[in-house]
Each structure stands twice: as structure tokens, then as C-alpha cells.
Write a structure and sequence with these properties.
By secondary structure, this protein is α+β, with helices and mostly antiparallel strands. The chain has helices spanning 24-33, 37-48, 58-67, 86-92; strands spanning 70-77, 102-107, 111-115, 118-120, 128-129, 141-149. It is globular, with a radius of gyration of 14 Å.
Length: 150
């Protein structure tokens, strides 16, 4: 067990709670923390200075999670459009994707959450299997973070 996950309590993955914001950044924060997407957008606005949250940078999402009591650790980074596909990452990460471990994935300019064989994002709006037809497995992965709660 590494230092980041020692003593960490497991994160319960939820479907995003719809609020006043429908974009993917606030949706993944909602799925991890349990706050609604409007509140998540407010936290992101406080960090980034954006008036409206329509797109979220990786540092905006990580900062919002940090402010809400969650830690993130970089597991994979690639230049935009040059990374492996989501399908390849899912195949390669099968051994580490155990239930209870939560991964924040930026693929195809879209934030999504993977935990074990479960998947959610703001576009789908519910928890589904990673094999669901709505999961865009051909999207190129730019970044993957593991999310933990102390």
C-alpha cells in the first residue's frame, strides 16, 4: 500500500446529482463528492475565476477536489490527441481497477469516472458498465488521476 492510499477511506461512486450546471467537470466532481453540479461549478469558479463553467482544466478539477477533501495522483499523461484510447487504458489498467479505487479520466476532451468495472460521466448521467455502448472507448486519453479521500 502506498503513502497516498494509506488510511484512506473508500469513495462511494454515485451518479452525478443534477444541479444548475450540466457540463462534465462539475458532473464528475458531483459523482465523487455527492454535491450537486451547481455547487461543484461554484467551487470550480472559486478556483479558476471563470464566470460560467463550460469547460474545466485538469488543475481546476484537481483543485476543486482538493478543496472538498480529496487527493489526486497522476497515473497517466499524454499530449492531447496522442494518448492511448480509453479501451486500451481500460485493458491495461484491469489489474489496478479494483472496486473502491476511483479514477478520474480525461479522454476525448471529456471528464469521466471509472471505478472497477463501473463508469459515469455527465453525458450519461448514471452509473453504467464500462462495456455500455454509450462509453466512448475510442476517445484518446490525455490524463488519468487516482482520487482518494483521507
Amino acid at each position: 500500500m502506498d503513502v497516498l492510499t494509506q488510511g484512506a477511506s473508500p469513495i462511494k461512486l454515485r451518479a452525478p446529482i443534477k444541479g444548475s450546471n450540466t457540463y462534465c467537470g462539475p458532473a464528475v466532481i458531483s459523482a465523487i463528492t455527492g454535491i450537486d453540479t451547481g455547487e461543484a461549478a461554484g467551487v470550480i469558479r472559486g478556483i479558476t475565476g471563470q464566470q460560467r463553467v463550460k469547460g474545466t482544466s485538469y488543475w481546476g478539477c484537481r483543485g476543486a477536489l482538493r478543496q472538498l477533501g480529496y487527493g489526486t495522483r497522476v497515473l497517466y499523461e499524454a499530449e492531447r490527441g496522442k494518448g492511448i484510447t480509453l479501451a486500451k487504458w481500460l485493458k491495461d489498467s484491469k489489474a489496478i481497477r479494483t472496486p473502491g479505487r476511483v479514477f478520474l479520466v480525461c479522454a476525448g476532451y471529456h471528464w469521466q469516472i471509472v471505478s472497477g468495472r463501473r463508469y459515469t460521466c455527465g453525458r450519461i448521467g448514471e452509473i453504467v458498465s464500462i462495456r455500455d455502448a454509450r462509453v466512448k472507448r475510442r476517445a484518446r486519453v490525455a490524463r488519468v488521476f487516482e482520487v482518494t479521500k483521507a
